[in-house]
Amino acid sequence: MTMWGTLARAWLWAGLGLAAWGASTQAVAAAAGRVSVNDLRTVAQKQARRDSNFSALYFLADKTVKPDAVGQLRDALGRHLAASGDLDVELRELAVIDFFPHRLGSGPAGGISNLITRHLMDARTDWSFVQDMHVPVDQDSVVCVASGTVNGAPAKAAAFVPYRLKGFAVMVHSNRGFRDAVSGCFDDLAIKLLTPVVPAPGR
To answer: 26-33 long-range CB contacts below 8 Å, 24 or more apart?
Structure first.
């Protein structure tokens, strides 16, 4: 066989290998199912909220969360969706909260759970379960809260992940330590939202 014939065969096998890899990737994607998130929050719910400069609790504005909060939640749900099928999520509440008593040098006087629930705007959800989170008051944490429906069934969840800023922190919410905690918080939130859920059959 000539050199050109050998090269042609090599290219052919390489092409077949890429085609097989692409087909297997599509099969994995199909097996993972589809995750759709419909954001029903109001403009006010997407704004930053803080009681005062002395408060250790800060609700981040949507534009501050990078990558965006809805996208992070959708991706986390896709990673933790155990069975094939579709997942349709409607969000009435989604909040990313910076709780920073250590950085501020003082903790909340009325308890963090009461401060969180006071700012949540989804009146159809009973937020009393937030009282059982037991977020530590001697370190800084990211807290994530969500409510709405998952495949038509009411769903709500809250999670927290402690964090430490990495390196020289000028912009706290852009710091890798903070952003890693946000990502971990969405992972925990997705697991809790999916716990009672049976995925809808794929369409």
So the answer is: 30/84, 30/202, 31/84, 32/78, 32/81, 32/84, 33/78, 33/81, 33/83, 33/84, 33/85, 33/86, 33/87, 33/199, 33/202
150 Cβ neighbours under 8 A, 6+ residues apart:
87, 88, 89, 193, 194, 197
> Which is nearest to 180 in space by CA: 142, 135, 150?
142
Cite the DSSP H helix spans in 33-153.
69-80, 101-104, 112-119
In whole angstroms, give the CA distance from residue 117 to residue 114. 5
Residues 186 and 144: beta-carbon distance below 8 Å: yes
Tokens of 139: 């370190």
Q: How far apart are CA 60 and CA 82, in angstroms?
A: 30
Residue-wise pLDDT tens digits, 143-185 = 999 999 999 999 999 999 999 998 876 789 999 999 999 999 9
- Cα–Cα distance list, 198 to 15, 84, 146 (Å): 39, 10, 19
pTM over 0.85: no
**139 C-beta neighbours (distance < 10 Å), count:** 14
Tokens standing for residue 77: 């749900």
**CA-to-CA distance for 129 and 64, rounded, in angstroms?**
27
